[in-house]
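Today's session is about reading a structure prediction critically. Students often jump straight to the picture, but the first step is always the sequence itself: look for stretches that repeat, for charged clusters, for runs of hydrophobic residues. Only then move on to the predicted structure, which in these notes is written as discrete structure tokens rather than atom positions. Here is the chain we will use throughout the hour.
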Amino acid sequence: MTTLYHEIEVMTSPDRVWSLLTTRAGLNRWWPGEISIHGGDSWRFQHEDHDVTLVFRVVEEVPDKVLEWLCVQGEDDFHNTLVHWRIGRKEAGLSLIAEHRDLRKSAEQLARLNTQWGIWMERLRDQLQQEIDTLDDEDLNAWT
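Below is the predicted structure for this chain, in token form.
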């Protein structure tokens, strides 16, 4: 099994990062498709270019620090993978780390997914550099 690792550095507050990872409005700003709440503790991700729907259940949540999503529905090689997010302090700003763990894909598939994660992280960085307030989203911390 493989883990993909991506890190960006941003000049913003932890709550702005958190809102892009824990609200439907925030997720829709960087995910290329539709996001909806699935059950009381999961996100349903529909990619705009793929027919496959992914459902990620929130399995760990330490506000403004750590978030983990477990894939509970989707492609076989995504099922039971874990996306681990960490928000850390840097001398100037914050780091946002995303690790997609336990992947069971071929080398070619991993290369494509690694590129896709790079694009998503850049979209996150772009959103964090904009002055858009996502804290008014009704889904904020919907299951906490």
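Discussion point for the tutorial: The mean pLDDT is 88.
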